[in-house]
UniProtKB/TrEMBL annotation:
The keyword Signal applies. Residues 1-22 form the signal peptide. This is Rap1a immunity protein domain-containing protein. The keyword Signal applies. Keywords: Signal.
C-alpha cells in the first residue's frame, strides 16, 4: 500500500488547496489529472481526490482539518463522494473501517 508522506501546493490544483499542505522530510509529488481536480496522480497511481483525503484523515501526521478542507473543496468542485478507488473502496467504506466521520 502506498503511504503518502507529503503533499505540495500544486498537487491538487483546486481553489483553497493551499490549506492542503503537509510538511515532512519526504514528499511525493501529487497532481490533478484534469481541471476538475477530482483525481490525483503521482504518475504511477491515480485515485479519487476525496478518497485520498479520506485516507489521510486518520493519519496522525496529517492535520485532520486539512483533510476535511480537501474533501470540502473537492465536493464544491463537483467531485463524486461515492467514487471508488482502484480496489473498490469508497470514502464511506473507509470511514466505517477507520471509525471516522464520512
Amino acid at each position: 500500500m502506498l503511504r503518502i508522506v507529503g503533499l505540495t501546493l500544486a498537487v491538487f490544483g483546486l481553489p483553497g488547496s493551499e490549506l492542503a499542505l503537509a510538511e515532512n522530510e519526504q514528499h511525493i509529488q501529487l497532481r490533478t489529472t484534469d481541471e476538475t481536480g477530482c483525481y490525483i496522480t503521482d504518475g504511477k497511481f491515480t485515485s479519487p481526490t476525496i478518497g485520498v483525503a479520506a485516507g489521510l484523515y486518520h493519519e496522525a501526521w496529517f492535520p485532520k482539518e486539512r483533510a476535511l478542507r480537501i474533501i470540502n473543496v473537492a465536493l464544491a468542485s463537483g467531485c463524486d463522494i461515492g467514487e471508488p478507488d482502484d480496489v473498490g473502496s469508497t470514502p464511506l467504506i473507509a470511514s466505517i473501517i477507520y471509525n471516522e466521520p464520512a
